[in-house]
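Job type: complex structure
Entries:
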Amino acid sequence: MTHGSRLRVPALTRVEGEGGLEIIVSGGQVTEARLDIYEPPRFFEALLRGRRYTEPPDITARICGICPVAYQMSACAAIEDACGVTVPDPVKALRRLLYCGEWIESHALHVYLLHAPDFLGYDSGIHLARDHPDIVVRGLRLKKAGNHLMEVVGGRSVHPVNVRVGGFYRAPAVRDLRALLPELEQARRDAAETIAWVSTFAFPDFSRDYEFVSLRHPDDYPITEGRVVSSGGLDIAPAGYDRHFTEFQVPHSTALHSVLDGNTYLTGPMARYSLNSSRLPAEIAAAARAAGLGATCDNPFRSIVVRAVELLYACDEALRLIGGYQPPDPPAVEVEPRADCTGYGCTEAPRGLLYHRYSIAADGSITDAKIVPPTSQNQRAIEADLRAFAATRLELPPERLTEECEQAVRSYDPCISCAAHFLDLRVSRT
Amino acid sequence: MTLVIGIGNADRGDDAVGLVVARHVRDAAPPGVTVRELDGDQLALLDAWDGAADVYIVDATWSDSEPGIVRRFDASAPLGGGFQHRGTHMFSLADVIELARALHRLPARVIGYGIEGAAFELGAPLAEETEAVARAVADQILHELWAAEGAGERDVPGNRRRHHRDP
């Protein structure tokens, strides 16, 4: 690459959505890295205004086919908060179990078919499957276990239909959940093998000084509830989110960027792990250490190891929850709107913190809605990392630089469908 | 076993066309033909067609082509770029077929129909023009299914109904 040029990757593959990446080089320095998200934004927030307070779990689940449960859970949490309702523990446990299914299927897909091929020199998961079918079969088996769990608890795996404000339409039978145990036991073994497998990959030496943001729960590794904390000392209830996090428009993206008290931050598996590794069961913490992870992880390329650890955790947690399962009776509590109330909900989507806020009128209609997905929050961190990463690789041939930058972006498992829709990489030099 | 699979999202306009074709086929398929609908995750095809030897797949396509154009393909050969779409967690139909081929999980015969949609907005219904194309594709699949059963043209249930209405 020469001084003063522009590398453009118009189609970034193996990320969810459509868009691109543009890196601008001037005078031998990377001056700009932009995620260009060019599909029109989804107007879900506007769509929700005027709808019944019971509708967001079903409507927002349609934002993403990969993490519908996350949308349903954050929506339920926010609406129940607005209505002053706390759901009973059995409902909470069943929600956490459903969420485990989504973590398993989402992480298995990303680790095996989207990210691992980068480390092994394959163009795609299909190419990997041709040479290593047993490995890909293991990944598909894991994903299927997650899908089955979502089907049994959520009614179906793509857009679950059993979730409602206050709980579930029906509680799964004990025997139906117990029937999943052999498959989940196998999934746990597969997940453990996944950790050992990905830990052997060669990771670029690329550590970053992140401000991590995730939920934190007093006892558990966070999935469905907790306070919003950061490595910079933030510690707030979800209701305080808007006082610290600000979204704003940038010219090159139709997805909003987000800052924490004016600063770039990162959410997602690395943040969750770094802020909560002490909450992992001892056996899983030991597996993480054996895979080379410390108490924190600041190399985005190693996020594949963190995802594998979370895969194991989700399998383990699903087995624990099924073992202690008592069907919630009734499966849902009644939730009635209060006059002019506002509620806040945060849960941990596979890709990171997902914030919902709803204001509801006395007649139960939604007067205001705000949804902040993890990829939207991570855009600035991804751009900052790309600037630093590309700066050390400007002497590479353009094709190689493009490949490496694409790999770097895939480390964050961005879901542009959630942030807006569709993402493409361009490096430009002037 | 013969299997017909319609793929699509019922809530995104013409993306639902595969599901609509599947429902039409189900109404008049020969006994023993199984019809399934898949919503979204195309990797689910790997399990959906497990054990089937003869599979028809119907999905919406989105390209620069005229809406309503129907592409028929035989998965015995790689599909190529026309049926791929980039940048998604949701693997394209072409990706899933090639993944299945790599894993030796591709049924002996897979025939696909891609129907070019016009609009894919969330919450939109299927366009009237696309509905008409769905009917025509369903009739074509039914014709192939009944022909495989040894039935003549007039024995196909859909054709009999049409003949009665329009003698």
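Summary: Chain B touches chain A through 23 residues (CB under 8 Å). Chain B has one domain: 2-165.
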